């Protein structure tokens, strides 16, 4: 019994020693054709491998001009794998032609060189201006 307690204590200590805080951030402007895409939901995820579940780091919404800025941080032993997921209704045919029922979902991996040590990003990945009208490769639909 004492041996397993030592193993558990040592493993948790090892994790706290080797896990390092890492931060990432992104910004951009979303358009729907010529119009700013206001109120699109932006989520910053840190993808993990099984059995560790993915971590939601932050959620923001685009402003009236379609602009967003998002940032988050996570303590991991290995380098984090950040992904920005955009949920929107631009050019959305929807389920059964009911456009309000579902949102289009597009995912973008953030390049590793935008990950910084600590709890605040030192640089932001800039998406620039994205027109969300066209269907993206590997795009998904998320309903309700």
Automatic annotation (TrEMBL):
Coiled coil: none annotated. Residues 1-19 form the signal peptide. Its main location: secreted. Pfam families: TTR-52. The keyword Signal applies. Keywords: Secreted, Signal. Gene3D superfamilies: 2.60.40.3330. GO terms for cellular component: cell surface; extracellular region. It is found in: Secreted. InterPro entries: Transthyretin-like, Transthyretin-like_sf. Belongs to the nematode transthyretin-like family. This is Transthyretin-like family protein. It comes from Pristionchus entomophagus.
């Amino acid at each position: 019994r004492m041996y397993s307690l030592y193993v558990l204590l040592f493993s948790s200590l090892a994790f706290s020693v080797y896990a390092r805080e890492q931060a990432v951030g992104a910004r951009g402007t979303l358009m729907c054709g010529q119009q700013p895409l206001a109120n699109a939901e932006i989520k910053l995820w840190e993808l993990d491998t099984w059995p560790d579940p993915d971590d939601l780091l932050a959620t923001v919404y685009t402003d009236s001009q379609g602009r967003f800025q998002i940032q988050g941080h996570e303590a991991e032993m290995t380098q984090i794998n950040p992904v920005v997921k955009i949920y929107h209704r631009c050019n959305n045919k929807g389920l059964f032609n009911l456009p309000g029922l579902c949102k289009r979902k597009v995912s973008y991996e953030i390049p590793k060189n935008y990950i910084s040590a600590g709890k605040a990003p030192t640089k932001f990945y800039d998406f620039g201006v994205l027109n969300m009208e066209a269907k993206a490769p590997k795009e998904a639909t998320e309903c309700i």
